[in-house]
Amino acid sequence: MNSSPIPAYNPGEIESKWQQRWEQDGLYHSNIDPSRPKHYALTMLPYPSGDLHIGHWYAMTPSDARARFMRMQGYNVLFPIGFDAFGLPAENAAIQRNIHPKVWTYRNIENMRRQLRSMGAMFDWRREAISSDPEYYRWTQWFFLKLYQHGLAYRKMSPVDWCPHCNTTLAREQVWGEDRHCERCGTPVIKKNLEQWFFKTTQYAEELLRYDGIDWPERVRTLQTNWIGRSEGAAVYFTTQDGDLLEVFTTRPDTLWGATFMVLAPEHPLVEKLTSDEQRPAVEAYVQQTLRQSDIQREAADKEKTGVFTGGFAINPVNGRRIPVWIADYVLMTYGTGAIMAVPAHDERDFAFALKYGLPILPVIARPDGLAKSFAPAASMRSGFAEALSNAGIAFDQNDEGIFVTLQSGQIDSYLNLAKEHLNSGYWNEIVGSRWVFIFENGMWEWESPEAETRILARCKELRSSVREARTLMEMLWKVEFYRDILFHAEYGMMINSAEFSGTPGDRAKAEVTRWLEQIGKGKYAVNYRLRDWLISRQRYWGAPIPIIFCPTCGIVPVPEDQLPVLLPEDVEWKPTGESPLKLHPTWRKTTCPQCGNEAERETDTMDTFMCSSWYHLRYLSPWYHEGPFDPQEYDYWMPVDTYTGGIEHATMHLIYTRFFHKACRDMGITKGGEPMLQLRNQGMVLGEDSEKMSKSRGNVVSPDNLVAAYGADTVRAYLMFFARWDQGGPWSSGGIEGTSRWLRRLWSLALEPAASKPVDETVIRNLRRKVHQTLRSVTRDFREFEFNTIVSALMELLNEMSKAKQAGAYGTPAWEEAVDIYLRMLAPVAPHISEELWERLGKPYSVHTQSWPVVDEDAAREEEITLVVQVNGKVRDRIQVPVNISEEEAKAKALATEGVQRHLEGRSPRQVIFVRGRLVNIVV
RNA sequence: GGGGAAGUGCUGGAACUGGCAGACAGGCAUGACUUAGGAUCAUGUGCCGAAAGGCGUGCGGGUUCAAGUCCCGCCUUCCCCA
Fold first, then answer.
1. Which pTM was predicted?
2. How big, in percent rounded to 5, are the helix, strand and coil portions of chain A?
3. What are the residues facing A775 on neighbouring strands?
4. pLDDT confidence of A177, banded at 50, 70, 90?
5. Could you read off the pLDDT of A490-523 as tens digits, one per residue?
6. What is the H or E stretch that residue A159 is in?
7. Integer Cα distance of A466 and A453 in angstroms
8. A 730-749 residues, CB < 7 A, strand B
9. Is residue A864 classed as helix, strand or coil in its secondary structure?
C-alpha cells in the first residue's frame, strides 16, 4: 500500500548484508596501535549451553554499543568473545542424550557463534578463545603448575561438599540455599573426605579486601568484603585434660572468663580421644547423624541446637577451670579451628545451647545500658515496699503476682538496701542484668563464679520447692518472663567476674586481654577469614586435567611443562560412577614418572571451570600464541581490562577468583599491576512477561532468534537498552518493543523520504541545531555513564523534533544535513545496521562505524530564551519568556508584574523574592 | 538477626548540584486515511473538581523561600549473608 518511492525498511536483508560486508573487510579487527589510546572492553564469556538467551543479548549488546562509542571517541578498542566451554552441563546433557560432551559442546558453540553474529556486535572473532580447546587448557594447566611451584597450590585430605546426584565435589560457592543444595541439580549436598587440590586464596584475603584504583560498584565490593569475612580477635590455647592443645579462634577474648564449656565440630580430630567410654555410643551416634543430616544447613539460626557431651574436659587457660567439652553440629570444621569456646552469657547460640542442656552460664560483661531488673513475688516482701520504692524514685509495676522493678544505673545499691529491709522470712529476692545479686535473709550473695552459682542455687532450692528442677541459675531465672530481655546480651561492656580484669571498660577490654594472653603465652592476636582456600578438584571428565603424576617413589610430581597439555582422552566412559571417569579409563591414568621413569599414575581429577575463566581475558589477547598463555606484546598494549561488564551473580565467585589469580600471577612475575579489571559494571536481569525469572518450565522464555526474525537485531538491541535501567533490568514487554520498532521505521522514512523545498524560518533552523547539539551532549554523557535507556529516549525525542523541523521546511538545508549526519553517528553504536544502511544511502563514505564521534557545538546548543517559572510561596503561578542572560533585577521586576502574580498577591507586598538563574523567581509573602 | 538496593501515573521508566514531577515509550481514548487494520498519521491521557483551584513521588515527622532529591522514625519488596 505504501505509495512512497522509497524502499521499505527490511531489517533482515540489510542486517545480513552488512554483517557479511563488515566480516569481509575486517572492520572489527583490533590491532596494536601505539599511536592511539587503547580500550579493552570485556563482556563475560558465555557458557555454550546451546542457545543464546535474551539475557546474553541484554548483557552484551549495550556493552557492544559502549565499546563502539569508545571506538568512535578515538580509542583503539578491543572487544573479544569466546566460550567457557568446560563444565558439568555438558556432561549432564551428554548423559541424558548420549552425546559425547565434546560433540555437544562444539555443536552448541557453532550455533551460538551464528546467534552472536546476528547481534551485529564488533567482536574481533580472530581472538575467539574456547576454554576446552587443548591449546587453551594447555595453559590452564601451565598456570596450575606455576601455582604449584610457588607453593600456592597444595593437596590435602578435606571434608568437602559432595553432590550425590552429580557425583562430584562442589566449591562452597556452588552450594546454595538454606538446605545447602547443589547449584546445578538442586540435590542436597553431603560431606565427604577426599584428597583435594586447593589454591591459597586465603593468602590474598587481606589484599582482596582493598579495592584501590578500581571503579567497581559499591554493591560488589560489599559482597566481596562480606564474603571474605574478616574478623579480628584472638587465637586462644586451651588444652584438653590430657594436655593436648585445643586452639580456638574468638572475636571476644574479653569474655574468656565466661567460657564455661567448649564445643567441637563433630568431625574435629580430638573428639575421638576426648570421648569417655560412657559417652562413646552417644557421641558416635551423633557424629553419624551429623554426616547423614549434613543436607540441612547446620548453622541455621532458627534451627534447634543439638549436641552431645563427650565426657571429656578442657582447661580454660585464663583461670585453670575444668570445663566440659561437647560436640555440636552448629560448629563447623571449616570455620576457624573447628572448635569454639562457649560463652553462653554473651553469645546467642551458646546461650540457647547452655539453656537447653543445663550447662553453666556466667555473666562476665556488664550491660552497657546499666539496666537491671528485679521481680519480687507478692508474698516475698513486707508491706510498705512499694511505697519505699516510690520514695526512692525507683520505677516499678505491680499486680497480683508481685512487684516488677526496672532499675536505672545508680539505683542498684539503694534498691538492694530496700529489698533487704523488706524481705520476708523464708524468701529471697534477686537483681539481674547490670549486676547479679541474690538477697537472702542473712546476706547478699553475688553471682560471681560457678562456685557462687552452686551455693546460690542450693539455697534457693532449700527455700522453694518449685525451683528444684532447675539445673542452673539461669534456667531458674529464665522462667520469669519479665527477666527474659535482660538475661542475655552480646555487646561490649565493662568486664566483670574476670579476676584482675574486672572493671576493664568495654572499649579497651579486647585489646588488653589479647596483649595479656600474648604475654603469658596462652594466645595471640589473630585475624580469621570466612574465605576458604579455593578447592579446585573436580571428579569429572569434562574439564582440564590436573597436570600431576603420583609416583610410588617420588610422590607428587608435576607434569613437565614441555609435556603439556595433558590431553583429555576422547574414548572415555564418561557416565558418572562416583569416581572420576578418567579413573576408569583402561590406559589413560597409567604413565611413567618424569623423575624416576618408573610406573606412575596420573591425577584423575579435573580443574574447576572457574580456573579456566580466571584468565580468559588474557587468552583473548593472543589465542594464536604458542610460547606462553599470552603474547607479552599484546599484554603490554591491551591490559588491564578497562571496562568489564556482566552479571552481579559473579560478584563472589568468578570476580574474586579472577582478582586472586591476577595477584598470584603478579607475584609469580607473569602479570603486572594489582588488579585485572579497572571498571566493572553489572547489568540486571531480563525477566519474563510475568515478572518471573525466565525458565523453560514456566514457559516464559523470550527467544532472541524469534525477535530478530520479527523485528531485526537493531530493534532488539535498541529495545534492550531502552526498556529498563540497564543495571536493574525488569520484565520483558512484547508490546514495548513495538515502540522501538516504530521509532526505527520512522527514522527510515524521515531520512530517506524527500520533502519539497520551501522557505524556512530562521528560528526553525536555530531550534533544530540547538536540539541536535543538546542531544549530542546528553547522549555522550549517558554513554560514558552506562545510562543506555536515556540514550535511546533522547534519540527518540530528537527524531520527533526533526520530524517537525522537516515539516517546517528544514529538509535539504545545511542544518538538516548536519542533523542527519550527527543522528546517524549517535545511532551507530545502538543500531549498527540501519545506521550503516542510511549512511550509505545518503551517499556518505563507508563506514559509519569508522567515523569519529561528533563534537558538541556549544554555541548552537546554547539557549537564547528560556521560560522562567514564577512562583508565589513556592507554587507555580505564571511563566515568562526571558533572555537567558536576564539580570536579576529585571527578572524580578518582570515576574512581579505578571498577571498570575498580581492575582495571587492580593495586594500583599512581597517579603522576599528569590531568583534562581535559568530556573525561577519565587515570591514569598 | 546483620548488610545492601529499591518504592514516582494503568505499565516500563525520566527528572544531572534541592528549583516547572511524570521526559521518552507502552497501554488506553477520540479522530483521520482505509474494503479491512494488530499498518500509518493527528490529538488527548496523574488524581479530585463544572470551573477557579486543590491534591499528588510507600507512610509519619523535620530542615528550607523551595524536597522525588537532604535529615529522623516507620512500612513494604527484592538481593546477599547468617
1. 0.88
2. 40, 20, 40
3. none
4. low
5. 888 889 999 999 999 988 899 999 999 999 999 9
6. strand A153-163
7. 18
8. 730-731, 733, 735-736, 738-740, 742-743, 745-746
9. coil
